[in-house]
Amino acid sequence: MKAALRLSLVLLAACGGDDSGLDDAAPVIENYATIVHASYQETLTKAAAMKDAIDAFLANPDAAKLTAAQSAWIAAREPYGQTEGYRFYDGPIDDPTNGPEGRMNSWPLDEAYIDYVDGNANAGIINDPVGFPTLTKEIISAQNEKGAEENISTGYHAIEFLLWGQDFDDNGPGARPHTDYLTVGGTNQHQDRRGEYLASVTELLIDDLTFVNDAWSPGGANYGTDFQAIDNREALRRVLQGMGSLSGSELTGERMGTALDNRDQEDEHSCFSDNTHRDLRGNALSLQNIYLGRLGSFDGPGLDEIVAARDPALDAKMKEQVAASVAAIEAIPMPFDQAIMDDVDGRVKVEAAIDALKAQTDTTVEVATLLGITINLE
Amino acid sequence: MKDLALIALLAACGDNASGGYEPGEELAGGDTTVFDEGANAFSLAARNLIGDRRDKFFVGNSFFKRAWVTAPSSTSGVDGLGPTFNATSCAACHFKDGRGAPPQEADEQFLGLLIRLSVPGVAADGGPVGDPSYGGQFNHKSILGVAAEGNSTVTYVEVPGVFGDGTAYSLRKPTYEFTELAFGPFGDGIMVSPRVGPAMIGLGLLEAVDESTLVALADEDDADGDGISGRVNRVFDVRTQGAKIGRFGWKANQPSLEQQAAGAFLGDIGVTSTLFPDQNCSAAQVECTASPGGGVPEIADDKIDEVTYYSQLLAVPVRRNFQDPAVLRGKVLFHEAGCASCHTPKLVTGDLAQIPEVSRQTIFPFSDLLLHDMGPELADGRPDFLATGNEWRTPPLWGIGLVEVVNRHTNFIHDGRARDFSEAILWHGGEGEAAREAYRMMPERDRDAMIRFLESL
């Protein structure tokens, strides 16, 4: 199969097409697929641990179990942030027809569509037993997708909102009491329905993570296998498109530039838990991982190897810049929502991180050009 | 190689305006043109937008994509959805900055197709008068606790026709129905106008076309006797509180991208702005009026400005296959049939304040931005400022060949009734009738060449 494919590629190359000069990329592509799957698997494992903690909390709500569920959510976000470099090329995570990304990580959350908010004690599906007599993952999912684009009411940030509540504290996260889930003597109304909603969106998240994990599972008839069979140049184009899009438009523009521009507390991804600084760090790390072919302590063939073979100086520059981006993001004082309002220090550091990511984006384009690949960034 | 020889031959014939390859014609958006033929082809910043000037584009893009949420919310910058609305974000209907479509299945909700409403009369600003209970646009969605205005459905009847060579075709004619109307029947003499969300590309270039250029293109009384009498719409400009030439929207009823954006925020998402400060809740809509808003205004001026900037600087993608012999043959036929009388191929832009990237560019929008009588079959029967119930603005055709790649459909015409290019041409009536007949009577080979040309745009 692979041999036949290579042959046809050689033929293509002979007609001025496609794979010329990228013979050494095959191990990099294979390793990329391995790492993508390993990161999704870790993400799924951590999400399953979070589900266990949430189930335990809902079975017998108390303050300690709420804290444990919150810690499990924070732990589950760590690997997810590092998967976001696998977006932006219509892979399984954001496939235009069935990609679950919008259901998993959409933001901003429509809080008042889910539960009570400051100023409206009766808001949300949870407090509407007439309109929504039963709450299951199917019903909530259908609601989220109605008309293709609906009020955002599922995913990590829905779970986050249900664990922390709205954040009105300048110096800390939201402070939802565990009593919101006590069916006897609890605070706020419909405690049982709040529990059902939380359990349902957690199940839904596990389903969606399982879907992307399966799509990259080695040896299956799936996207990951197809990805390793397409020609090297196209596979690398996708890899670089994902990297350039995350560091260029998504991180510098959407997640940091816009927040900086707005100067608005809570204009941040994990606004209920004040965990945005970790989201951003995970994203920057994702880019470094992809370039180096690395995940945690594992280091396989990465783009760095094939770039170094062609242009050692460019490889050195890229390595330095991906590390500099991670460092610049780590230097932003937490919480992020205070940093974007602090003219003296926080905003300067956010701007420095944006500049680091912009430089890295430009170098990503240079890497693509070196490999004879055109990527189109917004 | 083969192409080159052919071009040399064509060039030798000396014709380049209506046939042959005109050097640079593939750069539809001039220096803004981008080289992407994929699913993101409509989402890219102008190629000549460089350095820090791209920052604001990204922020605008963020607000274009961002979903608005019910007020009050932690994310106070983007709360104020509804109370009634059509979609929660701009990008919902302009998916990937592209073109909307009618529902593809019978039970699907409207998204990317909205319905304008009015009753007879002329409002104080010279525009249409909204329905007394439902306002100027039908909002089929609402936040929790507020009634949506109702539901709308579209059904189609097949209308058979025959090409000149005897080949049969069929067009689908839409009928719109409204059910579950929350505030009783529509007002007397209700006029209903369905419209899909158009692609967002090249809008700044169109805004940069001088008014004098549009006036010069107009031929209101058909002085040249070609059966085409394009005219400008003159509409109310909210910022200057005066009349201005309209150039955006299916009936050219918006004078600027700023007003278009602010109007859509209010009409489509239910978000108030400085230009449009009042929620669109009619007197009958009590829950709507009583709902907490997301601040006054709900979207800040600088965000409107950023979304406007974004819409001004979305690039036009490069043409494909522009030297293919069939495409060049189609181009000749396009001109010979008279399509280019309204779908003006080439314009030169003037100066747009603060946006040098779109200023003084040679562009190929295939539109004159003027109103034309398109006959009774396409008429919505709903006047809009100077536009009569029969008139529509010539929609630009640039990028239209990529709609299938970006938006995964080929539904054209203002309400998406045409299922492909051929049907879109066959729906043309009124001033477009002669061109349509020319196409209908062509042999299959020529019809195909015309389509190939459109696909290359």
Structural summary, described in words:
The complex is a heterodimer of chains A (378) and B (457). Chain A contains 15 helices and two strands. With 378 residues, chain A is an all-alpha fold. Chain A has a single domain (2-370), classed as A middle domain of Talin 1 (Up-down Bundle). In chain A, strand 1 (294-295) and strand 2 form a beta hairpin. In chain A, helix 3 (63-81) packs antiparallel against helix 7, helix 3 (63-81) runs parallel beside helix 11 (276-292) and helix 13 runs antiparallel to helix 15 (346-370). The radius of gyration of chain A is 22 Å and the shape is globular. The two termini of chain A are 36 Å apart. In chain A, 55% of the residues are buried. With 457 residues, chain B is of the alpha+beta class. Chain B folds into two domains: 2-53 and 315-456, Orthogonal Bundle (Cytochrome Bc1 Complex, Chain D, domain 2); 55-199 and 244-311, no CATH class. The longest helix of chain B has 13 residues, at 53-65. Chain B is globular and about 60 Å long. Mean pLDDT of chain B is 92; it is low at 1-16. At the A-B interface, helix 5 and helix 10 of A face helix 2 of B.
